[in-house]
Write a structure and sequence with these properties.
The chain has four helices and 21 strands.
Length: 510
């Protein structure tokens, strides 16, 4: 080959490499071009760019979009257009208050085509007049569990050509599912309480939707004496439970005559004092979701029998500690105060009469994964003015797949939860290489089993099989089987009330 030919090849190679580097730089710049959510952005044309879905190869779609302005009212949309030519449903149906609809004709989805395979499916909403956006809520496509994958995953919003949001929407589930999101996916452009109160007046979610009670699938006969909180939701189903209608009950108040016999140990308490020393890393805040006090008969001590004072002096905040709403992610139901590591936050509980206190049940701060770092970590517990013990509180998870309660037992002779667990099963080994004993209170699975599916009842392959022998078996009733939900992984949690050493976990697959 001539020198001119070699030189031409080298020049072409250098050109290709340069173009490749420029393309990569542009891609990085685009990824790093973060959008800061503005306060009450104002404009007339809202552009929604649907960048990707949850896995469907052919379609992408939405159920509906709700838009509220700074006046609290819904924005008046003059017209809505799209750049795609092939779609099902009516574009105007996106603006109808039909948030729990499963009819595909009343939702909207576009077919991906060679022209928009890059994800540039655009919806343009033109308002009747320029307005300030306060809240936008998306209800994702949810015709069925399978078709939920059509729903939008990554989305970008531009108002009059200026980016105001880029992020991920949750995958929706069928509207008759227990996993249906209650409030859709909300993007807030304000934190003004006055504006949010105005929105609440016009918000169909808060006006028309009935409250969905938490199902209580246990009965009083199934309560075990060693469960500290009598009405705590079970994280494992009983195998032989007959078909019974689902009921919703308030926390039962048991008279003394029906209580369990007192345990051998009792701790007579007049004043219970907690010093909260550190949190899990959040700067300037510390909090709890809730507390419960349990007597020597394993019964809850009613809040009428004591008074609570916290160092911040806010009685309204303090009341949230004992409001009974502990399995929640709603920050309005949680106790959160300012925190300075040099000055511990205190909670003082004074009983009107001396009580036999057996245990304290704690739910750590759980508003979200990020805010769970505001939960209490290190604490000192004083009983009648004397230091009882130093406690490390377990960090909350940021979700409510299981009851994340932590029981602090006051009996010094009682081993606090030295438990871990046993796909037909699992067997964790402790620090001394002996198998840790496990109880159902240490285990939580989500989804719990195939019994969550509409047409399956009393399947024996429930999660408690994970910790009960035999493990090395081919008999299905001794195994665990659960449903695999769209875009979700099955989870198994082993939860301890004290720090526990685990050296090895042995897993027996299905």
């Amino acid at each position: 080959m001539s020198e001119d030919g070699i030189k031409e090849i080298e020049e072409n190679t250098e050109k290709v490499n340069l173009e490749s580097e420029m393309a990569n730089d542009e891609e990085v710049d685009e990824e790093n071009d973060d959008i800061t959510i503005p306060e009450l952005p104002e404009g007339k044309i809202l552009e929604l760019r649907l960048l990707s879905n949850w896995g469907d190869p052919n379609y992408i779609g939405l159920n509906s979009v709700e838009i509220f302005t700074s006046t609290g009212e819904r924005a008046v949309v003059e017209n809505i257009t799209t750049n795609v030519t092939e779609y099902t449903g009516n574009l105007e149906s996106l603006l109808v208050e039909r948030i729990r609809c499963k009819d595909t004709e009343k939702m909207w989805c576009a077919k991906k085509s060679p022209e928009n395979l890059d994800g540039q499916i655009i919806l343009r909403l033109k308002f009747k007049e320029s307005c300030k956006l306060a809240l936008v809520r998306f209800w994702n496509y949810n015709a069925s569990r399978v078709h939920a994958q059509i729903g939008v995953r990554y989305l970008e919003m531009n108002l009059d050509g200026i980016g105001i949001f880029r992020g991920e929407l949750e995958c929706a589930f069928s509207a008759d599912s227990e996993f249906t999101p209650i409030m859709g996916e909300t993007v807030l452009f304000t934190t003004s309480e006055s504006i949010l109160e105005l929105i609440a007046v016009h918000d169909v979610c808060l006006i028309n939707l009935p409250e969905e009670p938490i199902a209580n699938t246990t009965t009083l006969e199934l309560l075990k004496a060693d469960h500290l909180t009598p009405y705590r939701p079970s994280t494992c189903e009983e195998k032989d439970t007959p078909n019974t209608p689902t009921i919703s009950l308030p926390a039962p108040k048991f008279p003394a005559a029906l209580s369990c016999p007192p345990t051998g140990y009792r701790h007579d308490v007049k004043v219970l004092h907690l010093e909260l020393l550190t949190n899990w890393g959040m700067d300037g805040l510390i909090g709890l979701t809730g507390m419960e006090l349990v007597d020597d008969r394993n019964q809850l001590i009613d809040e009428s029998q004591f008074t609570v004072v916290t160092s911040d002096g806010n009685k309204e905040q303090t009341a949230k500690l004992f409001n009974g709403r502990n399995l929640t992610r709603d920050p309005q139901d949680m106790w959160l105060v300012d925190f300075d590591s040099k000055k511990p936050v205190t909670i003082t509980i004074t009983f009107h009469e001396i009580v036999a206190l057996k245990a304290i049940s704690i739910w750590n701060y759980n508003a979200s994964f990020e805010m769970s770092y505001a939960g209490v970590k290190a604490s000192k517990i004083y009983v009648n003015g004397k230091l009882f013990k130093n406690i490390v509180f377990r960090k909350a998870t940021g979700f409510v797949y299981f009851d994340y309660v932590q029981d602090i037992v006051l009996d010094p002779n009682m081993t606090e939860n030295e438990h871990s667990s046993s796909k037909s099963g699992s067997s964790p080994l402790g620090e001394t290489s002996s198998t840790l004993d496990s109880m159902e209170s240490n285990l939580a699975a989500f989804p719990e089993s195939v019994n969550i599916l509409p047409n399956i009842k009393n399947d024996l392959r429930t999660s408690n099989n994970l910790i009960t022998p035999p493990n090395d078996t081919d008999i299905a009733k001794h195994m665990w089987l659960t449903a695999l939900l769209p875009n979700r992984c099955a989870r198994v949690f082993f939860v301890f009330d004290v720090q526990t050493y685990i050296s090895k976990i042995v897993i027996y697959n299905y």
